[in-house]
Amino acid sequence: MRHIGILQLTQHLDDAVQGFKAGLTACGLTATFEYLCADGNAALLDSLALSLESRGVDLIFACSTPAAKAAKALTGDIPVVFTPVFDPVGAGLVAALDKPGGKVTGMAGMVAAPAKLAFIRQLLPEAKAVAVLYHCADPNSLLEVSHFTTAAEGLYHVIPLPVDQPQDLSLLGERLTVPIDALFLPIGKIIEENFATIAYYADLAAIPIIASSGANIQAGALGGLVADHYKLGWACAAQAVNILDGADPDSIPVGSVDKPDILLNNFAAHNLGIEFPSALAVTAKEIFE
Amino acid sequence: MLLSRQSVELLAPAGTWDSLEAAVAAGADAVYLGGKRFNMRLHRSDANFDDEKLARACEYAHAHGVKLYITVNNLVSERELPAMRSYLELLATIKPDSLLVQDLAMLQLVRQMGITIPLHSSVMMNIHNEAAVRTLQEYGVTRVVFNREMSLDQLALVRERTGIELEYFVHGDMCIAHSGQCLHSGVVFGQSSNRGRCLKPCRWPYELVDSSTGRTHCEPGPYKLAMNDMCLYRHLPQLIQSGVCSFKLEGRMRTADFVGRMVSLYRRAIDQYVADPSGYVTNEADWQNLQESRARDFTTCYAFGNPGAGAVGFSGTREPRFFSQAVKEAAMTTPAALPLLKSDRPSAKPVRPQLTVRVADLPSLLAAYQNGADIAYVGGEAFQPATPWSQEQIAAAVDLADQHNTALVVTTPRITTLRECGELEQLFACLAKLKPHGVMVSNIGALRLARSFTRLPVHSDFSFNLFNSAAACWLQSQGVVKATASLEASGEQIIDLAVSSPLPLEIIVHGPLEAMVMDYCLPKALAADSASTGLCRDTCSGGEYALKDSANQLHPVKIDQYCRNHVLLANDLCLLPHLAGLYAGGVSHYRIEGQHYTPSLVGQLTAAYRRELDRLSGQSGENFDPALLTAIAASSPRELGIGALRYRASR
After folding, report:
1. Nearest to A197 among B205, B253, B324 (CB)
2. CATH number of the domain where residue A66 is located
3. Whether B46 and A171 lie within 8 Å, measured CB to CB
4. What ipTM does the predicted assembly reach?
């Protein structure tokens, strides 16, 4: 019987935990779990990681970048498997994706920018100008914006809409006056949390939203190509079993999202007078009503 | 009475199966949970129980000797009524130990369908007086989750008088506004806090502006309405001795780990107290554990009286997450989402649409009558600097109505606790000699008092959150003659209701809308000396307060004679250009909320709406005159907007 610590930033990532546990079971591994969640307060993660260490866990499954950093910062040698981490190298968790170089490995959560652009092309074939709304203080958002902008060169006119602080979203309406055919939301906590305000203004301006968070698509974005956290957790389970069987985390490359899910929202489509291309609709994992 | 293990029930939340197991394992006596439909926690698709899991959860709880309560505490739109009926049929087969309800329709449906599961009234029902409890008891309600604004002493008194079971939130996330009466999210975003989709405008940053002095209060921090988390862990003895039978932990969206830990801590404390009350001491290690794992800071809320500024987390640093930021509210240029009525639909148009006007004083009343009001409302809250209506003024108002061959209805406050109920009894009793044409009530307790103390026709106000015809049927069974629709209902939902309601339907078409009503007094909380002494220094008198949000909009804060603060939406409602669609849909009564306006504006508005309604009912051959709207906008103290009519459906 293994003893596994789960370090969680917010319960919104519990899909990954469920996938992880189910994956372990599928691998035939039985374990007891110590689940500690910071309920969104990242400042608590260091002490929660210490608490897991003191409980003598064999491995820590860390959900989110800050949780993975807190687990990695423990001075002991407890191996860490993480997901969803957008930029494991940039966050300093691993030296390189194919050779992590320490006690940490896992599954990256990034959906590649070219795939997202291809999705936009399929969903909104007429779109030319795509605005990108992002929080300037979020390194993950900045990285995705950079990837997205580079990949969109020659395909779309990209209009950056940076936000310094959440309250700036209150005046977003004034910034949606130039012709915008789609509003792309890269991943990022501030944008995801305050989606209702973004949707409010986008709805008034009849601009479709392409989101990176499944919750935002359910709440009214037109669609998005998103990483399935359950599947990422499942893939982490195989990595964890490998490590518990004696493999060195350094020898286990960081995995990535190979088949992101297509999520669509019919309520938003109806409001916008848009019909989903049938090729997209049939491949969508879920069409929210 | 001697205490036993059965004297106190520890009631835990369960949003997932894991939480359910954790709560049961940690020693909960009862758990509450919701299905995928009709409950108050609908933001996440991965939470709540599908039909099959509900049944399994019930079996699981009962197999472990734990009671299971199912939350059905959502407002139901007319189109959702058939689904609610079939859901109730399902729940009747699952046999939970109670259903937690908000919508008055549930009282009607459960009786109609012969369902015998006991009902518990949700905090969303805003129950805060004895008379309301007595009415609920007649409909199979065995337990009430009272308003969170009630103190333990007030609860003990109601319990002693009625014998009702008391359930009380002892730990978790709380609202700053009166539950079930907060319309901010519903009107602005089309996502109602009374339908499980609150976007938490109370967690936005605000400045408090006093336009009488030009002073802006930025201190002690921007989050002026952000209530801290309830925690009564250190006060369990008082709670138990006050007769509260069920200690409720908030948190259906929380993790199994959190739920399990909370249940364990409270279980231990309750058991220790029951085993040896006089020798009980707080377990400091457990208290430390609670403190260390808290999200927000703790408060005892209203358990021991109004907590004032001490209950608010002004800095926002401990806010676990935000749900939205302020937005510029819908304006007159915002497109309205009124349904296109089919031409073959039988005409539902009322013969002569009635124009009703609520006023603050006699000059406004005269202006309303002179300009075409059919019914006027006087009474209820008097917002500073206005004074409450005296009996003498009401008598003068009745005289004015008689002179103009119109009707005068005496209205009553929205929140009526012990003091207000005592005053209402006296008021109702004296109306026999004042002879107004009716009374309007704002909650089911006041409704009962009106029926007991007067023979006048009774009207129900918007605070009943009327969304469907089953609730209208219930109101009719209680003697109500005309009902006001919820301010959160969209155009489609209003028309559905107007067509099906057995009662004539009134909608509010013009005026400031109250986003929140609070017992928390902002001027007092922010006055330095009051914050330190807790004493009220009449800081509010003479001030003209408003909360400024991050979209640079001002939300006036109006203070009534009971010191309650009413936070208004930034834009005043104006549906003048949309009356045609509503009239065609069968709405018979149209109200102007004129109590915050000058007499001259009341007169101008009344004349404009009268003209439009007469035009629609064929009593004048004119076309809609856009100049009317321009003139109203020029006279209005605030920008105008279309409120919830922006949305196809209130979600």
Report:
1. B324
2. 3.40.50.2300
3. no
4. 0.93
